[in-house]
Predict the structure.
Amino acid sequence: MNSIKYYLDQVKTIFDAEQFDAEPHELYAPIDYTLRLGGKRIRPTMLLMANALFGGDEKQVHNAALGIETFHNFTLLHDDLMDRSPLRRGQPTVYTKWNENTAILSGDTMFALAWRFFLRQPSPSLQEILQCFNETAIEVCEGQQKDMNFERMGLANVSIGDYMDMIRQKTAVLLAGALKIGALYAGAPANEVERLYAFGIHLGLAFQMQDDLLDGYGDTAVFGKKTGQDIRDNKISFLPLTALKTANEEQKQQLLALFASKDNMDEEEKVRQVLAIYESLNLKNTIEKTIADEFETARKELDGIHADETLKTPLRELMETLIGRKK
Amino acid sequence: MNSIKYYLDQVKTIFDAEQFDAEPHELYAPIDYTLRLGGKRIRPTMLLMANALFGGDEKQVHNAALGIETFHNFTLLHDDLMDRSPLRRGQPTVYTKWNENTAILSGDTMFALAWRFFLRQPSPSLQEILQCFNETAIEVCEGQQKDMNFERMGLANVSIGDYMDMIRQKTAVLLAGALKIGALYAGAPANEVERLYAFGIHLGLAFQMQDDLLDGYGDTAVFGKKTGQDIRDNKISFLPLTALKTANEEQKQQLLALFASKDNMDEEEKVRQVLAIYESLNLKNTIEKTIADEFETARKELDGIHADETLKTPLRELMETLIGRKK
């Protein structure tokens, strides 16, 4: 119980034991497909770790682990449709493999299945647990809407504050919520739960900023996707927003023009020009420092939690993995 | 408290007092639009009636009333997108007034908002109430999938049994679920809850079969939509399925051909031919008898419930309204 591997294995066992296909097959086959694709399953892993941290009974959170991952995959399924993403984890997304209506309805059903998992497990804190789950779900929807709004608003009209607020809702609250739910099942004291939640938020923000950084500087072979895809897509991320803050007027106008360009320019040339501006601003260093600060804030929250140090080890290990990740 | 009007007014007051718009506006404006369109709001009305039937405190089910209607409208929002329906309650549907992505994401958020309403109200039966709500939600999704499957399968390959099972899930379980939830909040005994649920199922089946009948025989001026729209759309309903059962071989082949026709035939001629077959089979009478039987079964379930007769009055009134409806 002191290693990240233990929890990853537990989550795998929990998922392998579960039956997702059912009738009507047209509705459940895409759900089974999505949940069997695997992925990192980091949220249920964190939920189990948080529960163990406060002495919870692991069996008591099997359903919550299934629930949080099913919810996460529901959001991916609908996001992929809204973003028109053809691939997820190297495989065709549901709306491409089946069709749009299937993606909508099987997604809706996954949200309800997530609830079914949560509702299976009684707990003295059930109402609080379910409220945490549901408010998290609402924030994830709000975050996705804000992300879509940014696309329409354009780079010049989005502030770093807006962006941080968006990634907090779209990414961080679900990591934090998974930890909080695990802790609530274990009956952890309210102040410790809140500290763990704060740890999750900072971890999530750092994680997303690093994801943005890897798009510009990641090793394609390890990262799995082509460097500069956000640039090709004119996607607003922490990179151009931070670059705008330190850019001179000429660079600023150049960046705004590049991020507003449609199909009228060679994509690779565009990536080259944007990366050249980033380079001249020493952007990588600035962002790495911000990310390191965010991880440090997360670490301090974890340090402040009153719990057995040995049981914190997997969460520290997880954080180190995220800090060191190249993909 | 002894009239249907009392409960309809209560539901209106509950909805008028609620704020649905919020930030980000792009996400919540379509939700506010949808929930303000009104409609019959029959599900929250039934929920309130069921709660009163067993002596429940009406204030205790205000949130559940909001929740069940919010959920219902979420399903309409996604169904309208999947079915490409341009109008709902005489107004543009969300995907036409805004766009597809808005319909998807605002719909998802409505599902979560429904949960927020339910989770606001503590109850000793909370887990059972939420499970009833969630299992209902899953059945509604399954019903919608089956309805979409029928379109692909074609009239010849759908049995009346398949169809009844589909409308039970797509329509009846939500009416029955609304009643059950109202009764559970009131602390009604399990056997009475089950009888009320059965009443809701039969009422829902009769309601949907009548809806099918009105498509073929409704008074356009009252019904609000053009007679024969299901025929134009080749939509499988209780009418052609019942007709096939009593049709001779020639009529059967004719009906199957008419319901498989695409744009290669004049629509009004098609409606005329189908209705002529129905007429020769005396279909209206047959179906009216089936519907009357279903209402009779519902009435018997209601009769069997041990509760104050005065408090049953609004439910009886509601049933009579549904029996007599021309729209």
In short: The beta strands of chain B are 87-88, 91-92. Chain B is about 75% helix and 0% strand. Chain B has a mean pLDDT of 94.
